[in-house]
Structure formats: C-alpha cells, structure tokens
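For concreteness, we quote verbatim a single protein encoded this way:
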Amino acid sequence: MKRLFCLDGVRGLLAVYVLLGHMAPFAVLPGWAESVVSHGGAAVDLFFILSGLVIAASLQRFHCQARPFLIARVARIFPVFLPVFAFAVVLQAWPCGFNHMPWIGPTGAARSICSGAWPSTWAAEIAAHLTMTHGLFPNGVLPDVWVSFLGSAWSLATEWQFYLLAVLVAADDRRLVRVLLALALAGVAWRLAPDAWQFSRAFLPNKAHLFALGVASEALVQQQPGALRRYGVVLGLTLAVCATQSPIGKVLPPLAWTLCLLIETHERFPGFHQANRLLRSPTLAYLGAISYCVYLVNEPIHKLVGLMLSPLAGGNAVLFTLAWIPLAILLPIGVSGWLHRYLELPALRWGHSVAYTWAARGMAR
C-alpha cells in the first residue's frame, strides 16, 4: 500500500488534541474553550480507525506471517510504554495538588483524569497492564483496571486484542472485516447483561466496528474493484453501531475519517488540495512522528507539573493557568521528542530488521 503522508498529520492533530483535552480541565478557561477539546474519546476512536488501515497493510507487508508481524508490533508498543508506565506507577500514590486548586470542584473533570490513590488490587492491575490484558476484565472483577496507573494506556489493550484477531484471520481482509462487525454487534447486544458483567471501552467488541472501517479502507486506498461499494456498506454498519452508543457524537469519527480519505484520494477537488498540504506540513508530520509518545506521556507529566506548580501559584487560578498552559503543552512534546529520537526510533529499526528477517525465512520455506 502506498504511504499516505497526510495520515501522519492526522496522527499529530489527534495526539495534540488529546493532550489539550487532558490539560484544559486543570486551567481556568472559558466554557466554550474547554468544551472544544473535551472530545478526547472521539480522537481515540479515529486512532482506532487509522490503526485498522495500518495493521491491514502491515500484515500484507509481512505476507500474513504472525511472528514477524507481532515482533514489529512489540517493538512499536513496548519500548516507549514500559518506561512511561513505570514513571506513572511511581507517581500513582502522589497527590495531584487539588488542595492548592480551589477552582476545581469535587466533580471537576480534572479529578477523573488525575488520581492520587494507590489501588487495592495494584499487583493484579500492574500485571494486567504489562500483559496488555487490562481491557479484558468486566466491571465486577477489576472495575477500574483499564484506566489505572496510566489512563491513556487503555487503548493499547484494545489494540492488542485487535492484533491477535488480525493474525488469526490475516489472509483475508474481507473476513477480518466481517468478524470485526460481528463482534461489534455482539458488543451492542452484551449491553443487556448485568452491570457487573459490562466491559470498558478497552474491550475489543466495543470498538471493533472502528477497526473494521479502517481495514475496509485499505482496498479503497489501493483502488481495488468494488472497494468503494464495500467501504460504503462497512461505513453504514459502523455508523449504525455508533448511533447505538452515547453520546450520538460517536458517529463523527467515521465521518471525519471518510473525509480524510477523500482529502487524500481526491486532492484535485476544491479545498482538498489546501487541506492535504496542511496535513503534510513539516510541523504536523513531526507531531505525527512523536504522536504515540505524546499520547502516553502527557498524563503523568501533567500530574507532576500540577503537583509542583499549584503550591507556587498560592491558590491563584489566573497565575496557575498562565504558567500551566505552556508547561502542560510544551513539556510533554519536548519529552516526547526525546523519547522518539533516543528510544522509539532505535526500537523501531531493530524491530523491523528482526521482523523482516523472520518474514524472509518464512517465505524461503
């Protein structure tokens, strides 16, 4: 599959949007400003759709061989995740500084982002994160495991469930789409189960329709015969599943994704050329390159900055906000740039080298 450079820009925009959504509840901002960046869940949904496209293409590059594909995924996910997760575990028991932030009420959104309590089931929750199984526990077993320690890591559990499913049906993208849509419909039906047996957003059936749309996009990008019709069917089913969820705004990510594909594949249309140029800009391309790091590090860095900055502000919301906004944006991006250069890129090179070696051996047999 040809490389879609505009998708790097999409990644960059989504990662920064999630960062802003985690930053805004701690500051004193106009209601409209906080509302604009309060849809981080929709941004993650777009990440899932994009992942469906990327993983479908990755499996084809490795000739649908499980071992090289999973080696490449391990090299992509764990080298950054492990140190960031360790940092978050160290910070877990530390307070968030809310005692110095009187402008944040007891029901403020910031309190759902930052937690200063050590979980009673900490050993099981750490083990679940390290094995990427923290999306497989129903509410009645480990109710908050999917967001404990490192809240943003919940999506990694969903991703790994998708990877394993993709490996099982890798030889047929259409079959993978059908299985994902069947899982999504099962997830809708499962909502009738008792609350104790409900699963979090990190459970694959609750997001499977989004991955299905991404997988269906590959044939469209490759301009295969009948791809547009198949994509339209999958888009319709995806929107139908989204419409059963609350809020109704869940239908926006599939529509936004479809617009991204149109911008990439129909650049000659009025307005699309300018949008494509923006998404391919060096700034967004760089933010896209470090987007995974930005996505993971922003919450623990925000907690540390808030803890250190709030006493210095002395309860002054304006003073805190003026210092908080630049620090909460620039510091995670700076740390992410360092992680990308010295940890993520070397790990990716090593992982791809090993993966392609195994793929070549598999083809030679």
User: Anything to note?
Assistant: The chain has two domains: 49-87+115-266, 281-359. The chain has a mean pLDDT of 91. The two ends are 25 Å apart (CA to CA).
